[in-house]
Amino acid sequence: LITKFVTRDLEGVFYWNLDFGWREVSREDWSPYETPAMAGGLFSIRKDWFEELGYYDDGMEIWGGEQLELSFKVWMCGGAVEIVPCSRVGHIFRSFSPYKWRTDLQIPEYNYKRVAEVWMDEYKALYFDRLGLTGQEESVNVGTYGDVSQRKVLRESLTCKPFHWYLQEKVPSLGENFIIGSGEIRNYHHQFCLDQQDNEGNQGLS
Length: 206
Known about the structure:
Largest sheet: 2 strands, antiparallel
Structural class: alpha+beta
Strand content: 5-15%
Strand order of the largest sheet: 1-2
Radius of gyration: 19 Å
Number of strands: 6
Number of helices: 7
């Protein structure tokens, strides 16, 4: 049995690659407090509210992205997400995967694309631009993410606020670092590219 004590001084956040993370905050007491996002295995939600929100997206595959979809739509569609420091959650990790993983899809990216397309409005470009190869058409880089038409109908029926509202009100820190350009930085004389994957396994790669 492994136990982990999580302090009260954390809130759930996400990054533009749509990974979830924790950020330190300062809290004076142990009372519940709002959080922009929450990890997928730690949610507690009223059944009828979960049903009204359309449950989880059943078009997603296996794992990943569900925590952001639920966090986004709870906030955008009239609810709130809170961390309750005095709560206790049991999370059992299996020693094997009980699921059959599809080999024709990149997971969790497949799920992230569904979240971006349905919930992130024009900000989905900040995720889609990270996919694929520089210079290719966006549709080629993004690839497939299945049919999301019913999820969009759900969002419209819930009369949710725009994603811009969510960013301004719940995660304004994501707007602190503005993107002023994107693409590749290349030395045309040597045909080398500036690359962030600086490790021995990638030595000599551009």
